[in-house]
Amino acid sequence: MTTSRTTASTCCYCGVGCGVLIEHDDEKILGVTGDPKHPANLGRLCSKGSTLHKTGDLAARALYPELRLGKGMARSRTDWDTAMDHAAQVFGRTIAEHGPDSVAFYISGQLLTEDYYAFNKLARALVGTNNIDSNSRLCMSSAVVGYKRSLGADAPPCSYSDIETSDCLLIAGSNMAFAHPVLFRRLEAAKEANPDKRIIVIDPRRTDTCAIADLHLAVQPGTDVALFHGLLHIMLWEGWIDRAFIDAHTEGFDALKSLVRDYSPAMVSELCGIHPDDLQAAARMIGSAPSFMSLWCMGLNQSSSGSAKNSALINLHLATGQIGKPGSGPFSLTGQPNAMGGRETGSLSNLLPGHREAANAEHQSEVAAYWGVEQMPLNPGLSAIELFEAVRSGKIKALWIACTNPAQSMPNQTLVHEALANCPFVVVQEAFATTETCRYADLLLPAASWGEKEGTVTNSERCISHVRPAIPAPAETRPDWAIVCDLAQRLEKQLRPGQPSLFDFSRPSELFDEYKGLTAGRDLDYSGLSHAMIDELGPQQWPFPAGAERGTARLYSDGQFPTPDGRARFIAEQYQPPQEKRDARFPLLLNTGRLRDQWHGMSRTGTAAQLFGHVEQALISLHPDELRSRKLQDGQLVRVKSKRGSLILPVQGDEQVRSGQAFIPMHWGDRFLKGLGVNVLTQPAYDPLSKQPELKQAAISLQPVALPWELFILVEGRVQEQLSALRPLCEDFDYASFSLTGRERSALLVRVAHTEAASVDWLSRVDALLGLDSGPVVAYDDPRRAVGKRVRIEDGRITAIRLTGETAARDWLRNVWNSGEADAALRQWFMAPLSSPPGGATISNDKTLCNCMNVSQSQIEAGIARGLDLDGLKAELGCGTECGSCVPEVRQLLSKRVNFVEA
């Protein structure tokens, strides 16, 4: 009999840093629950965190080192010694022949702090290059600049508890209900407990987050700086500022006051596309509130003026003195579980460990002396966009990518794929072999993943948690820090022959203990912490200097800021419009954002069929009026085009989106959507200070396409192997979409459309892969019309479907698969061209609104029709009783019912 046990750890998704309890049997993770003792989530988990044990299918994992010796060759399995010797030889030779800046490292906000530290020491102390950047450049670098310019340090001043105690809370550019649902649950509870709490949401879309808002400002995309200046204009006019705080603790107010004088309500309202009364109402809420807090995310950061947006928002806090006290302060919501740890360790090309600057001579000397090396590299490092441009131009000749998927996540994917294809040597250190980037790996190194490694993470509120492994890493996978140290020790033989190793680490705690010394005396000082102390005290917020007994919940309560004179800075910058605007050729503005149940490039969440239940495939959303004016129907295929590339997608009507705008979730890459994914459309223009790209805004055109031949596939079991086998076979079709479906039984779904039918040979190959070429298969063929159908039935139920040429029955056949039954009377209709099952039964392929309890939208609508309110729905159906992510949508359905009855 196997005995299960529980290990405390943290989630691996967003920057909330939720504590989880992992149930396991020392070999396999069996389940997860929220840790009620962790201060970040107090036992709550979102739909992604609660299904962590269902993700990470070993069939998708990188389990052994793989190497190829030529670009045209396939990789083959090798041993670790051969792999690392080869990597060290190529990197050493490249450095010797072309200099240290001919190599680069691109790493991830998913890494642990100890992993980050090892990479930074490798790049800076051993290789001698600042060419190390993180995918956090794509999400948080504008927030870094905003904090540093305005407050003196990259230090979010708030705690999560301030969300609950704030009297007025502004959410800007964040669909918090989807991106940070655990925090949103805390906000919902706080609003319910205190209905007088005022919530303002700034977002071009009316997202689920807006359901909680007292005021939604649906601004035109990219106009946030003008909005914040307009709010301050009104607050100055009405006297809603704290002049005593301004005089005692800030600099630069007069210049800002002069600037915002021009941002009148009439001008700002017209520019932002909002009513003047709403602007006045927002200013009144902020200016009259005893405490004011702001939360923001990618809508502000992913912009060519992201730094200005951050500083303009922080200006509101400084002008009102709303910082450093309970319920107040500017609080950026971090996008990844350890993006903060990356910033702390220097994992952006312009940073050094301990919140130091790579270009600062004093900081260079401090780090060099600590590491015992002659000097830090002097040349500026390349940020993410610059780095991949340098790879494509040939400046970077060896590239090491760890725990990130730039072939999905970077803007302008055509350039990124060209760069990776032409780079002489690409190493990918990755847990999942199925990412789009892995296809370009000359050397693939298998990394340990969540639940398998140890270290620390820092969440959005500066809270450091100890991540513990629950099970051994599978096969030949290794922790990231160990892989880095292995490479470094081999490289040292070439670059530091005969000298003591800089990388003599045998466990992650040793890296932590060395690194924390670089924080001593700095704003983020956590020199008083250790892995053992965190285990004893629980997660702690920095600063936590030596001798401290607990962490620091709130910064700047004394009005002193980490600037040379101790004063915060008002930043006065004019509004600058986004780089790309609508025009006659590209008349729509594209926005990108998150789905509720998927994360980033779906490397991990894309392995769990359950997480596709809410949104199953990539779609482009337009306002229903936009659909009508363009004479488009829901589900119709359209070609979406920008100046950089194009995609074919189904279109859907969505009242959350304003006319003239469009929305596509950011997650869909080339693995699930033929055509390099959504980021083939997005633009690489970036903020001049933060170097963060403007992923949130691109001008697009949209035209219907006629693709008369269709293919539909559903195949049960071994979904990762089936996806990896079928995806390359669909490259020549105009449209191809891949997703998963099911819960207890998983299946792969494939939808294809093309101008002409596939060949008989191609279909035969596919049938062989699906097991539809022999055995208990019902078949029908009409070669004249290029129609072919196959349904495999085993043990009385459907296990595979392939429909080509005519796919009318796909929805009800899928329902039959899902039911697990296929009686003889029904089978005679499987080949019929019927869009509904015989007998007039209804089709209920609607989305899963509550993933935790497997409750569909139609079930909830039926309950509402019977008169159930939210509490009644929870009691009868169970929806909203676990993670609560479905509650905003349930409330919307209830609201629609109320409005319908009143009408």
- Given the C-alpha coordinates, what overall shape results? globular
Secondary structure class reads alpha/beta
Helix fraction bin: 25-40%
Q: How much of the polypeptide forms β-strand, as a percent range?
A: 15-25%
Query: How many helical elements?
Result: 29
Taking all Cα atoms into account, the compactness measure Rg is: 27 Å
Amino- and carboxy-terminal Cα gap:
62 Å
Low-confidence stretches: none
Trace the largest sheet across and list its strands.
5-4-18-17-16-6-7
Main β-sheet, in a few words? 7 strands, mixed
Average pLDDT confidence is 96
- What is the β-strand count? 36
Q: Could you provide a short overview of the structure?
A:
Helices cover 31% and strands 19% of the residues. Strands 5-4-18-17-16-6-7 form a 7-stranded mixed β-sheet, sandwiched between helices. A 6-stranded mixed β-sheet has the order 24-26-25-28-23-27. The protein has a 6-stranded antiparallel β-sheet with strand order 30-31-29-34-33-32, sandwiched between helices.
